[in-house]
Amino acid sequence: MTAWRGRNLLIGGFLTAIILVMALTSLVWTPYAPTKMDFLHKLASPSPTHFLGTDAFGRDVMSMLMAGATSSLAVTLVAVSLGAAIGIPLGAIAAAQGGWVDSLVMRAADLTFAFPALLTAVMITALLGPGATNAMLAIGIFNIPVFARVTRGATLAVLGLDFVMAARATGRPEGSILWHHVLPNIVSVLLVQTTIQFALAIVADAGLSYVGLGTQPPFPSWGRMLNDAQTFIYRAPMLAVYPGAAITLTVLGLNLMGDGLRDLLDPRLSRQR
């Protein structure tokens, strides 16, 4: 059992590292320009010239996959960071203050959770217009109540411990207690939750791009590649397999890494080893 916990973290980290290296590499090099069209070689099969073939516009599929990784990870990073930057302080303040502040923050979170994440993102991007920036904002807004709830629960658990009560007895301000005593003790919980939100954000970004509300052409994205591939699903089915596999492996890697981190950082599971 111990070996399997470590294996989750190892496999998840390996898959995530592959996608990250692919995205970083695309910033400086791709086999071809991702937006370069070559109609004379459209829908070409994999070959030494085009390792994964070309799409309906003659664009190199491998180059588009690499550039799509950059697009997806950039949107995800900003969206999750936005949710964490707002949600974590809100959750900590709600737990520390209690009363009407806690009720207000949690009822706002409940209101957000009443709508499915992707539906909320579609509504926001439909109102503000399509594009990567608005996709970041839409996904980030949904992440705020997630981080707020997780932070509140973890903070409440720590606030009842003896060392926090001792800090309060010395007259330390509540903000200082949250920063110096609570946050270091809940960072492992937040780290695990962040990896999970990264995985969900990847799916949300792909969904928005698929329906035309995320990253806009000519910039490649995995969701847009899936949308374009459906027209040629019988003639060139691999055009859908490649971006679908990229999304699947990224989400799988992040989930396995989050599961492995939870097992590694949870003291209760550590005592079982």
H and E order: HHHHHHHHHH
In CATH, the architecture is: Orthogonal Bundle
Would you identify the CATH H-level superfamily?
MetI-like
pLDDT < 50 runs, ≥5 residues? none
Q: Portion of residues in helices?
A: over 70%
Average pLDDT for all residues: 89
Q: Structural class of the secondary structure composition?
A: mainly alpha
Q: Report the end-to-end length measured between terminal Cα atoms.
A: 8 Å
Q: What is the tally of helical segments?
A: 10
CATH class placement: Mainly Alpha
Q: Major β-sheet, in short? A: none
The number of distinct β-strands equals 0
Radius of gyration: 22 Å
Q: Name the shape in a single word.
A: elongated
CATH topology: MetI-like fold
Residues in β-strands, percent:
under 5%
How many domains is the backbone divided into? 1
Protein topology:
Layout: H1 2-26, H2 61-97, H3 99-113, H4 117-128, H5 132-159, H6 162-169, H7 174-210, H8 222-229, H9 238-265, H10 267-272
